[in-house]
Amino acid sequence: MIKSANIANTFVVVKPDLTAESETVTDTFFSELDTRYDGFRKHLLISSFSFDSDRETWEMHPHGDEFVCPRSGDVEFLLRDAAAERSLRLDSPGSFVVVPQNTWHKAIVSKPAIMIFVTPGEGTENQEVPPV
Description:
Helix content: under 10%
CATH topology: Jelly Rolls
CATH superfamily: Jelly Rolls
Distance between the termini: 48 Å
Number of strands: 9
Largest sheet: 7 strands, antiparallel
Number of domains: 1
Radius of gyration: 15 Å
Order of helices and strands: EEHEEEEEEE
């Protein structure tokens, strides 16, 4: 059955066969994803998050690139890999960045933001300070 939903509380899982399932976000959402979707191997998560303060940790996706696009707000994206640290500003709806696989990244919030993500979630790592 086809139905509408809101990305604020219902995310989309794209499976390896490129079919998609809507998933209602709950307190146990992320742990359930790993269980229901084989550790999230070869899956993508389409999600939306609101940010009114900086991300406290850096994040890295070892199994693919991540797409990030603001719906509102102003966020500086820090990206760090073995070669360098770069800064990109996402300050208008429709601007976006593709964060390369194995690149540590973190959001610095200048103005509260709502962001859309397409994430290869398998093996995602979070650290307070990423390796250099």
